[in-house]
Amino acid sequence: MHRLLSLSLLAALLTISLVHIGHVEGQRSAWNIKQNPFPKAKRVSKTLSYRSAKAKGNVTLADPYQWLQNDDDPDTKTFIADQKKLTETFISKCASIKQIEQSVREAFNYDDYSEMIFFDDAKVPFWFYSVVRPNEERKTYYIATPEEMEAARKANFPNPPGKKYLQEAALSPNATATILYFATSLDRTMIAYLVVEADAGSGTWYIRKLDSPLVNPKKIVPGGEGRLPDAIPNGYQDLRWTLDSKGFFYEQFSTPTNDTNSNPRAVVRNHQIGTPYEKDITLVQPDADPNNYWFLDYSADGRWLVV
Fold first, then answer.
1. What pLDDT, in 10s, does the model give residues 15-49?
2. d(CA 57, CA 59)
3. What distance in Å separates the CA atoms of residue 127 and residue 129, rounded to the nearest whole number?
């Protein structure tokens, strides 16, 4: 099921239930706001001061509910719990709740396509894209010919065109890893993909040939079965393949970004396919400001790396 379904389902149920109870139940008054009052939100004496050109000085604004911005505040947790209880009580009054749930779920029952790229400069041009299908949590990447894509378009995409190339669910034993960023080699024979866990900002770069799919593997290994041996930890979402497709430039953090005991610093390095990442050459050292990252590009003639 899509990640946003639970939130969207709740919002839809609230709206539809309100209409159902208010109009269908009619005079029976199924909901009494006096018997079911909204949770009270305390007000605090908090103000914010901002510069104002119009006022030619500072203006002060009251912000009595700023405490709600702290998710860990016990009062915030209590307020949220009270809201949830009220919502569940309200929804329970709806006689058609099961039918409404089903209709909302069906509204989200579609193929969610993204990252569609057409590589017309490949030896054999192809489409590369991802899709999340109904009742699936992770993306599946596909490779399709122009003819397959055109046939699917004319038929209004009854099924994803082409062949499965990579299943995100097969990237890690717990099926929670996802691809944050990817880049194909310039000869369109390989793909570098950055695999991250949960909401991490950095992860591990893996390399896979485009003729080596990761579909229903016999075993689950980090980065997926059948990939090349190359694995680069603490990678960030910027990578540029060299013009000969034998390696790439990439950004790497000195330590994992989720390490709270350190201050990760970004460097730019060069990797050659088939060599251990420990031997990679560092081209650019961390910036003096630890909050700055590097972004990579090529000059127009392809002779220079722009950082």
1. 444 444 444 444 344 678 888 899 999 999 999 99
2. 7
3. 7
Helix (H, G, I), strand (E, B) or coil at 89: helix
Residue type, 190: M
pTM for the structure as a whole: 0.70
Dist. CA 125–CA 161, nearest whole Å: 15
- Whole-angstrom Cα distance, residue 159 to residue 111? 8
Domains annotated on the chain, with CATH:
5-50+60-107 (no CATH), 110-170 (no CATH), 176-307 (2.130.10.120)
Distance from CA of residue 131 to its chain's centroid? Answer: 13
Placement of tokens 């079911």 in the chain: 36
Q: CA angle at residue 199 from 189 to 78, to 5 degrees?
A: 160
Note the pLDDT tens digit of each residue in 199-212: 777 899 999 999 99
The token duo for 291 is: 């909050």
Provide DSSP, 2-19. Answer: -TTHHHHHHHHHHHHHHH
Q: Are 200 and 192 in contact (CB under 8 A)?
A: no
> Given phi > 0 = left and psi -120 to 50 = alpha, else beta, which region is 89?
alpha
